[in-house]
Every structure is written in C-alpha cells, then in structure tokens.
Write a structure and sequence with these properties.
4 strands
C-alpha cells in the first residue's frame, strides 16, 4: 500500500512535468505558425506553460467541481452521508476530513478530487444518496476515501484539467496552415522544436487520453481493495457497483476529460460494458470478481 502511494506521488511529478513540456512545444509551434520570433515564442511558451501548470496544480479541484456543477453539502440536508463520512475517517486513517460536495443528477455516481488529503473533496450525486442503502453508500464513500488515501486524486485531477487544456488548444489550432510559418530562418533548433510541437499538437490528445485511461483502470482496482480494508464489508461495495452499473440515467455535467474520475463510467451505452483500450474503467464484472476474491 505504502509503495503504491509513493509511486503515485512520483508518477504525479513525472506526469505534470511531461504535460508542461508537451504544452510548451505546442505553444511554441502555435507562436511560430503566427510568425512570432524564436526567442519570443520560447519565452511565451515557457511562461504560459509554467503558469497554467501551477494554476492547475493549486486549483484543479475547484475547476473539476465547477465543471461538475457541484455544491457544498449541508449537515441539515445530508446528515446520513455526513455521518458515514465521519465514521469512516477513523477506519481510513485520514488525518483531515474531506470536504463533501453534492451534484444534482438522476445518475448515481461519485468521485474524489483535490491535490492532497488535506485539500481533498468527495463529491456525490443526489441519485446516489436516494438509491443506495447505508452499506452501499459506505462502500462508495470508502472507495473515494481510498483514492484520497492512495494519492490518486492529484494525478487524476491534474491529468484531466491539463488534458482538457491540450485538447482545447489542439482543436483551436489543428487547422493552422503550415504556410503561416514559412519564413527565412536557418535556425535548426527552432525547426526541430517546431516539428516536435506539430507532433505534440497532433498526437498529444491521443497520448494523454491513453495515459488517462490506463491510470484510471488500475487505480479503480486498488481503490476497491482499499475500500474493503476500510469497511470490512465487500458486499456493500459489490451491491453498490451493480446498482450503479445497471442505472441508465445520464449525467449532464460530465465530459470526456473528467469521466475517468468517477467510480463508474458516467457515459451509459456502449462504453458501459466496454473492455477495450479506450474504456475509462475496468468492467464491473472484473471489479466484482476481484472483490469476491477478497472474501
């Protein structure tokens, strides 16, 4: 467990650095395409990339909650789930109490976010509170606490926000004509950087998505196992997963960049049972089988 936490911290650093480099190359190409001088393009790309990465690191949870249209939970309205959260804190060994947020939606689902356990958030939909019993809710909340305890939350939030930024830049500038960047410049370093920028611009969304999906699938199995350690009741989580998987309601506030953060895929239809490379989550059947092996 501690080894996985250490790996997640190291992996987060590499991912943030990798996205910073990728974003810098994309911005450099965009500047060159608009005939910005080499030194100015490099300066702008580095400053923008560093600032956007810094902002993402410290505000990824706020950005994700805004995208999800989440609101803070209240003790009066959500007394039952607040009680479950407080009870599980001791079992989970969390020093800090995660903030609790609610999303008004007919689809039962949940996710956790934040840059560390001290600044963590657990977000639940109203349908989750209405459709799950006490032990099922306990399993779901323990699962999200596991993401916090295992330091999954920083990695998933940063990847989601930075991937969304890169995809946005790619969509905006993927049709820029190469003719805009034709200029009398014999600087081989600039040419190489521009070629790398083009490659990143074209392939970054795909590479980022594949990395996001691979990280998401693996961390769900680990969070399921850790949730059972916290609750000592695999049946509650198993029953919750079956209910969430069977539900066909849509979650309007979700998008492709944040879908991997949820306990089950929020996109219903073909992807719900998909086991291919592009599925954001492992299949419910595989997750339940893994949980039953813990019994």
């Amino acid at each position: 467990m501690f080894e996985d936490i250490k790996k997640n911290k190291i992996k987060s650093g590499f991912v943030i650095f990798g996205f910073l480099v990728m974003l810098s190359l994309i911005l450099y190409y965009i500047c060159m395409a608009f005939n910005v001088s080499g030194p100015a393009a490099i300066t702008f790309a580095l400053i923008f990339s560093i600032c956007s990465t810094w902002i993402t690191y410290y505000n990824s949870d706020k950005i994700v909650l805004k995208l999800a249209n989440a609101r803070p939970a209240t003790l009066e309205e959500d007394k039952k789930v607040v009680g479950i959260l407080d009870a599980l804190m001791l079992s989970a060994g969390l020093e800090y109490r995660p903030k609790l947020y609610i999303v008004d939606s007919n689809q039962p689902n949940a996710f956790a976010t934040g840059r560390n356990p001290k600044n963590s958030v657990i977000c639940l939909t109203t349908a989750l509170l209405d459709k799950l019993n006490y032990y099922e809710l306990e399993g779901v909340i323990a699962h999200e606490m596991s993401h916090i305890k295992n330091y999954d939350i920083l990695l998933s939030a940063v990847v989601s926000v930075l991937l969304g930024l890169i995809v946005m830049l790619s969509d905006m500038f993927s049709r820029i004509s190469f003719s805009k960047s034709d200029r009398d410049n014999d600087n081989k370093a600039s040419v190489i950087l521009m070629i790398l920028g083009v490659i990143c611009l074209v392939f970054a969304p795909l590479f980022g998505k594949l990395m996001q999906l691979a990280l998401s699938r693996r961390r769900e199995f680990l969070a399921d196992a850790t949730a059972v350690e916290i609750t000592r009741n695999p049946n509650g989580l198993i029953s919750a997963l079956r209910k969430l998987d069977a539900d066909t309601n849509t979650l309007n506030s979700v998008n492709s960049a944040t879908a991997n953060m949820y306990i089950v895929t929020p996109f219903k239809g073909k992807e719900r049972k998909s086991k291919d490379l592009f599925s954001t989550h492992p299949s419910i059947e595989d997750r339940i089988a893994a949980l039953e092996n813990i019994k």
